[in-house]
Design a protein that fits this description.
With 89 residues, this protein is mainly α. The protein folds into two domains: 1-40, no CATH class; 41-81. Helix content is 28%, strand content 0%. The radius of gyration is 28 Å and the shape is rod-shaped. The structure holds zinc ion.
């Protein structure tokens, strides 16, 4: 277990003094949480508006694929209906 003091340091520099921030960097990032490591909305459960995962990108994409599949298969059935009678034995 790392202590906060053995962790990699934040590389952000102060605009005015030029001094390094030197706060412990967020794991996997080069800056501390004050300097943008956590920028952007959190994913999934950590997001304040995350309810149940019903509307995640993956889900919406699969629903789109299913809708397309239905559309294509309906078109296919229509094509069958348009075949002249007596030729589909
Ligand atoms: Zn920092």
């Amino acid at each position: 277990m790392h202590s906060a003091h053995s962790a990699p340091r934040c590389g952000a520099k102060s605009k005015r003094s030029g001094a390094r921030c030197n706060a412990p960097a967020v794991r996997g990032k080069r800056v501390c949480r004050m300097h943008g490591a956590l920028a952007g909305a959190p994913r999934g459960d950590a997001h304040g508006r995350f309810k149940h995962g019903l509307y995640t990108c993956e889900k919406l994409a699969s629903e789109r694929a299913i809708a397309e599949l239905l559309l294509v298969s309906r078109r296919g059935l229509q094509d069958l209906d348009h075949q002249p009678p007596g030729e589909s034995h």
